[in-house]
From TrEMBL:
Occurrences of domain Zinc finger CHCC-type (ranges): 51-88
Descriptive protein name: Zinc finger CHCC-type domain-containing protein
Pfam families in the record: zf-CHCC (PF10276)
GO BP: mitochondrial electron transport, NADH to ubiquinone
Species in which this protein is naturally found: Triticum turgidum subsp. durum
InterPro entries with a match to the protein in the record: Znf_CHCC
Organism placement in taxonomy: Eukaryota, Viridiplantae, Streptophyta, Embryophyta, Tracheophyta
GO CC terms of this entry: mitochondrion
Amino acid sequence: MRSIDCIGCFFLTCCVITTYKKNLSFYLLQDTSKKSPMELINEVPPIKVEGRIAACEGDKNPALGHPIEYICLDLDAPAVCKYCGLRYVQDHHH
């Protein structure tokens, strides 16, 4: 009989936790005053680079960055780092 009570408590606890997580997710998704990480990255203008290759580390501090990605800048459109989303363009001197 005691094991049935424990199983009932377990299921009740799971239902409460699941409901809490759903409500928390709904609340977090409804907060439109904060910008998403993608919106913040898109606000950064493309970084101009001399030459055809850009090396992106994400941040000057190695603890906050990502593995170095070498990006080819042969196209006219900005090239995007696959780790952090920063955009790079070739700086053409006329």
